[in-house]
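Researcher: Structure prediction, please.
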Amino acid sequence: MEQTKMSEYNNYIAEKEKIDRYVNEGYRITDVSEDLSGALLTLMDKRGKSETLRIGNADARKYFSVLLLQQ
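Model: Predicted structure follows.
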């Protein structure tokens, strides 16, 4: 059970770092699609370059929701 908690935490940290990397590079979240596997984020930078991220961890989905409201 403890290993599962740590694994979920590690998944959260990995997904949060991916989101943060794009946000720090000037990307903004432009679209969110939810499905049974989690969320598909579309991010776009100021030049119009688009990137897509799959976010499966529930805590990471909460995290990007807060970022979305702040932007």
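Model: Residues 2-24 form the longest helix (23 residues).
Researcher: Thanks, that helps.
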